[in-house]
Amino acid sequence: MSAPNSGTPPTESTTALAALSTEQLIGSGQEGGLLDQVRAWVQRVRGGDMGALPAVAGFIVLSILFTILSPYFFTERNFANLLTQAATLVMLGMALVFVLLLGEIDLSAGVTAGLTMVIFVVLIAVVNLNWILALAIAFLTGIAIGTFIGFFVAKVGIPSFVVTLGLFLGFQGLELIIIGAGGLYRVETPEILAIQNSTLPTWGGWVMVAVMLAISATMSFIDRARRTRAEVPNRTIALVWAKLIAIAVLGGGVVLILNQNRGTGFKAIEGVPIVVPITLAILWIGTFVLDRTKFGRYIYAVGGNAEAARRSGVKVAMIRWCAFIVCSSLAVVSGLFSISKVGSVDAAAGREIVLSGVAAAVVGGVSLFGGRGRLIHAAIGALVIAVITNGLGLLNLPAGVNYAVTGGVLILAATIDAVSRKRAGGSILRT
Amino acid sequence: MDMPIIELKGVVKSFGPVDVLKGVNFTAYPGKITALVGDNGAGKSTLIKGLAGVQPYDGGQVLFDGSPVTLHSPRDAGDLGIEVVYQDLALCDNLDIVQNMFLGREELSAGTFDEGRMEREAAETLRQLSVRTVKSVRQKVSSLSGGQRQTVAIARSVLKKAKVVILDEPTAALGVAQTAQVLALVKRLAEQGVSVILISHNLVDVFEVADYISVLYLGQMVASVKASETNNEDVIGYITGAKTYEGTPA
Ligand SMILES: Nc1ncnc2c1ncn2[C@@H]1O[C@H](COP(=O)(O)OP(=O)(O)OP(=O)(O)O)[C@@H](O)[C@H]1O
Ligand SMILES: [Mg+2]
Q1: How many CA atoms are closer than 13 Å to the CA of B140, on its beta-carbon side?
Q2: Do A313 and B78 touch (CB under 8 A)?
Q3: Is the overall model pTM greater than 0.90, yes or no?
Q4: What is the DSSP letter of A8?
Q5: Do B143 and A425 touch (CB under 8 A)?
Q6: Which residues are listed as membrane-spanning (chain A) (predicted)?
Q7: What mean pLDDT comes out for the span B176-199?
Q8: Pocket test for ligand 1, best of B46, B197, B221 (most atoms within 8 A of CB)
């Protein structure tokens, strides 16, 4: 613990050096310049820790492919369309990450979204309830469903696959009972419709990017300050700049495209759809919780080795239970995105989407075996699947092709998951 | 003689109709290494799981520093400063070394992880134990060898100034060099005043490091002796039940 005691204040490099010299025995993986960090990253990828890399590559390849095949694919209109189409799946995928990380699954997440939306619209249309109250009841229902699943999985010990498969069927029945076969309710709440159909003013998009940059920079510098205080080396500052530049370029590019007028009639349609900042906010909060709080860390620990977590004093059942509640609650949000886009709710709401949600997470690099994955992975995976759906749709191919391709991508992703898990040594089973 | 830091009096434990511990007495002293030996299924792991609060005893008394305590959860044991390194290693493969060492007792600052401080303390602890084989404290545990994992598990146990460290067959899966390293680590723990309880089937290892040897036979403590006052042959006799210990428990 030898801080440099010369008169000069400790700079980035001197503290790193001091730490290095006292600690030659063990490094922290943070040492070295940009090149060393890149090299370390390449090594991790080679070791099987690929994260969202295959999905990002897939996204780029598919986008190029569809741009070549269809003149409509790479247009402002379709770009905005793609984002709003993907939003429901992104949110559902992120919801599922919380339980997938535990090595569990929630097959009822889609119909949870559907059922809560059925309740939401029926409360407004039939009972004439105020929409905010109806929304609150929808969320409470979602929380109750998560509590129910969590109880049976964490306390009773039934496999989540079975519990949620039961609910998957049961909720479809409930939807039918409430709405009636062939029944359909239109969504008439302007605030809900606005989520997917209204946009931020054009300056709002720039503010959004600015906020993202500010938050990212603040977090990075707080982290660095803490590490400096603890006298452990920091990664080279170039990485922070690289990250900020990436956000600025990517975010700026997206905003730039979305701020073009994409309307076909008199009325200009421009700006970032409101669903985008909502999704980004939830993504950020969720990632914060998973990376920086005990709850998040314990989700990973339980997913990695539940018995080890228990022996370390983690309340395993409680963590499982809460994860299912988070999953169901976020599923309600995905339901909102869905009805906002579609504009109506029928008795089959949410029936088909759940496997796509699981696919989104797995395609993005979330492991089905638990313990590995991030929210952003599910978001990227959902974008890949949305690109496939959207692109194939533009090509006027029969709907069957879409299912077949999506299914193929899922199996491919699961294979990558299994193989990389073996390479990372995860196949050594430990209780 | 020192006062024992741990004293078990007549602890019993059964799984259904099977009596695994049939009234076991056991003592461990600060700064000393007590080896717990016995055949497969003798009840060694069960005895220490009770001390760890993972599988509470059905009956009997546990004295810690002379006063009776209850151990009903891993937290109870942790609060007393009892740490266990399990036979079936209790590490999370998907987390890195620092995250594993701090699992269940993370350092917070403003409600969120203070990763810097945790990394510092983890590196510090590994250095005190003269661990050299680990490249980076931010390595995932899945990328470590058996010996390195064992090292991390032991370092985890001493991170929080443990008073008692229990090691269940820490060298069972290790090669010659790594075994020597872990045994050296065990000695260093005792030198720092920690009471070490070491379970092992390898009597060579036991005689190399242990101050006391306690022998479990079918759920009963059949011998407790000073390592310097017994020999390999006698201990094998106690373990297999071929010989009965005559003296008073050390
Ligand atoms: N959870 C359990 N349920 C039922 N029986 C158990 C349980 N745990 C242990 N036992 C039994 O208790 C006995 C003692 O087991 P224990 O694991 O304590 O033995 P051990 O001395 O550690 O053996 P080893 O040297 O093989 O590790 C064995 O007969 C075992 O089958
Ligand atoms: Mg055992």
Answers
A1: 21
A2: yes
A3: no
A4: S
A5: yes
A6: 52-73, 79-102, 109-127, 133-154, 161-185, 237-259, 271-290, 318-337, 349-369, 376-395, 401-420
A7: 88
A8: B46
pLDDT confidence tier of residue A430, bands split at 50, 70 and 90: very low
A179 φ/ψ angles, rounded to the nearest 5 degrees:
-95, -35
Atom nearest to B49 CA in ligand 1: 18
> Which residue, chain included where needed, has tokens 């792991």?
B45
Query: Which residues, in sequence order, are CB contacts of A266 under 8 Å at separation 6+?
Result: none
Cα dist from A305 to A101, A152, A335, whole Å: 11, 20, 32
The pocket of ion ligand 2, defined by CB under 5 A, consists of B 45, 87
Helix residue ranges, H only, A103-231: 109-125, 131-150, 160-179, 190-197, 202-229
The Å distance, Cα B43 to ligand 1 centre, comes to 6
Residue A333 has pLDDT above 80, yes or no: yes
b/e burial code for range A119-134 (CB count within 10 A of at least 16 → b):
bbbbbbbeeebebeeb
Ligand 1 within 6 A of CB of B219: no
Residue in A343, A337, A346 with CA at minimum distance from that of residue A386:
A337
* Nearest residue to A99 (alpha-carbon basis) of A357, A407, A351: A357
Task: Say yes or no for a CB contact (<8 Å) between A30 and B143.
Answer: no
Q: Give the count of alpha carbons within 13 A of A369, CB side only.
A: 21
Q: Which of B21, B44, B166 to mutate to test the pocket of ligand 1 (most atoms within 8 A of CB)?
A: B44
pLDDT of residue A427: 38
Instruction: Quickly name the fold that domain B6-240 has.
Output: Rossmann fold (3.40.50)
Q: Check pocket membership of B20 for ligand 1, CB cut-off 6 A.
A: yes
Helix axes A131-150, A160-179, angle to 10 degrees: 150
Alpha carbon distances (Å) from A375 to A95, A214, A249: 8, 21, 21
The Cα B4–Cα B48 span in angstroms is 16
Identify the residue whose C-alpha is closest to ligand 1 atom 3: B15
Q: Which ipTM value was assigned to this complex?
A: 0.84
Residues of A in contact with B78 (CB under 8 A): 313
Sorting pLDDT into bands at 50, 70 and 90, what band is A340? Answer: very high
List the structure tokens of A215: 């938050």
* Contact (Cβ atoms closer than 8 angstroms) between residue A251 and residue A209: yes
Between helix A375-394 and helix A53-69 the angle, nearest 10°, is 20
Q: pLDDT tens, A147-159?
A: 999 999 999 999 9
User: Backbone dihedral region of A180: left (phi > 0), alpha (psi from -120 to 50 degrees) or beta?
Assistant: left
Domain boundaries, chain B: 6-240
Stretch B98-121: mean pLDDT, rounded? Answer: 91
- Min CA distance, A207 vs chain B (Å)? 27
Q: Where are the beta strands (DSSP E) in chain B?
A: 6-15, 18-28, 33-38, 59-64, 67-68, 82-85, 108-109, 112-113, 164-168, 195-199, 212-217, 220-226
Q: Is B171 in the pocket of ligand 1 (CB under 6 A)?
A: no
Question: For chain B, first and last CA: distance in Å?
Answer: 10
Tens-digit pLDDT profile for residues A259-314: 998 888 888 889 999 999 999 999 999 999 999 999 999 999 999 999 999 988 89
Does the domain spanning A47-198+273-423 belong to CATH 3.40.1710? Answer: no
